[in-house]
Amino acid sequence: MNTILRTLLFEWKDRKLPPIIERDTHLDTSLQEGTNNVTVITGFRRVGKTYLLYQAIEKLLEIHPREEVVYINFEDERIITPSTDLLTGLIPEIQATFGKKPKYLLLDELQLVPNWSKWVRRILDSETIQLYITGSSSKMSSAELPTELRGRSWEIMVNPLTFKEFLRFKKTNIDFEKLDFVKDEMARFRFLFDEYLVYGALPAVALTATEKKQELLQTYFQTVVQRDIAERYKIDNDTALRTLLKLLLNSSYITISKLANSLKSMNIPVGKSTVDNYLSYIESSYFMNELYIYNRAVINQLQYPRKVYFVDTGFMTALSTKFSKNMGRLFENIVFHKLARENDTKHYYKDDKGNEVDFAILSEGKTTALYQVCFDLTDEETQSREVRALIKAGNNLKCRNLNLLTLEKPDNYKPPQEIKIISAAEFFS
């Protein structure tokens, strides 16, 4: 194992960093004073966690020699079986290779190594090394972090590209202030926003030619299924897992009973408890989020259907069994993630008459905002339905912050005074 480490370290000594497109998320590389904590970078596979490390390394190398800033990727194919011995020998091997201990140690996908958290805690307690680690499992998130690291870590969550970052990756700018009166600018916005909606916002996909995007997304999907879910949780029934994932991608609402029945109807008999376990594994990989109902009359939210949203709309396009793109569902998915980044508590709302609002934002037990998402608001019947649901929910929840999100504001439609219409350009600018 020391031979592999030595090889990786010698390679690192002369390795050139790839070109980096700066993200809006940055790592704090300033020296810590008082408390030595680990910085944990979490998020879905391929969202750019490694490049966030590279971005930090590039900054550090401006003032530190290479041997003081050491990077190891534990997904390197030469590390066939990551073991605790690999970590135990890491600092001594760095010292032997470079003649000193590192000041900064950046470790990619560390969760693959058994007992990684205990090793991290020992380093924090016994060394003055600043640690940065990444992981593609929620087990490394602040909510599920092992006991030994509670209070000893800072979490940085990396998401797919925001629309502003997407434009940066596409090497283009949009003058949002001119959209309402410059037709060419609006046409360019629509073209780029459609790509963002349909193919998603994973960095490499944004940089890939259109004809190759679906193929790349399908490759990512296979990796997530195999490595982040099946192997990590030792799932033998690969067919059930893959079929369940495709059912989810083609569903707006789910219940465990309906999913189990759908699998049985396809001659894949799995019990409800297995389906429930698979759902928790899928969420742990950051692939999917569930949204629960909010209604004061609802005692047990788990008894009601949940809405599902995916880490990236590209998967919904590349893996959907439906022949036409559901732009409304894609739009709602990216709205969910923007709201999720800005708010801790969110639900969907539905009253006993079937009136539904897509997102209810809560703070200290009170509803602070309601958001209804409607991709195309040109139809009068649609306008009436969406506005009616918003107003009823606002009255029931005593909320006056009512928002209707749409691709473009209709020219000849004025909503009731209490409702604010927000265009995609306004919301994502």
Automatic annotation (TrEMBL):
Which SUPFAM superfamilies does the annotation name? P-loop containing nucleoside triphosphate hydrolases
Domain spans labelled DUF4143: 226-373
Classify the source by domain of life.
Answer: Bacteria
Under the heading Pfam families, the entry gives: AAA_14, DUF4143
Q: Where are the transmembrane segments?
A: none
- AAA domain segment(s): 36-167
InterPro entries attached to this UniProt entry: AAA_14, DUF4143, P-loop_NTPase
Q: What is this protein called?
A: AAA family ATPase
Organism encoding this protein: Candidatus Gottesmanbacteria bacterium RIFCSPLOWO2_01_FULL_42_22
